[in-house]
Amino acid sequence: MGHRITSEARIFNGAVLTATDIAVAAGRASIGDVSRVADLDQSIIDDAQKEIKSMLQNTLDAMKTSAADIPVYLVGGGSILAPDELVGVSRVHRFPHYDVANAVGAAIAQVRRRFGHPSNNSSSTGRYPVRSTRLKTFRLRLCPK
């Protein structure tokens, strides 16, 4: 669904039932118009949440490098979809303002694309390789080629 969620999800006056609609109907999130999902049968909400949980647990399990439980750090708008407890997870962490992390990352990427450039300091012999890179970036901003 991605960027179309604000035009297609039921909570935003669309016609498509989305995972975000389920999160709102279940009380996990307070975005959009909750009245647009008030008519959902509880069994639909429960079944969808079970499926979301199963999909997330399977994905996390496939990514793990051992059978040990791992902590999970959730950021971005999709974090509202995840339950607070998952099999194979020692703790589900959500940081303050986790729901806007993608927006912050996208904004930083835009600035980097416009003003920054990739730099490899691994073979730098100078005393302050990061400072050197910052100075080069600053000079590029002042005197673009």
Q: Which features does this protein show?
A:
145 residues; mainly alpha; 2 domains; two-stranded parallel ribbon; 5 helices; 2 strands; 8% strand
What does this protein structure show overall?
The longest helix is centred in the middle third of the chain and has 22 residues, at 42-63. 12% of the residues are buried. This protein is 43% helix and 8% strand. The two termini are 40 Å apart. Helix 2 crosses helix 3 (42-63). It contains 5 helices and 2 strands. It has 2 domains: 2-95, no CATH class; 102-142, no CATH class. The chain is mainly α. It has helices at residues 5-8, 19-25, 42-63, 101-115, 129-142; strands spanning 70-74, 89-94. It has a two-stranded parallel sheet with strand order 1-2.
Order of helices and strands: HHHEEHH
Low-pLDDT residue intervals, each spanning 5 or more residues: none
Main beta sheet strand tally, sense and closure: 2 strands, parallel
Q: Which structural class is indicated by helix and strand composition?
A: mainly alpha
Distance between the termini: 40 Å
Tally of alpha and pi helices: 5
Provide the helix percentage.
40-55%
> Got a strand count?
2
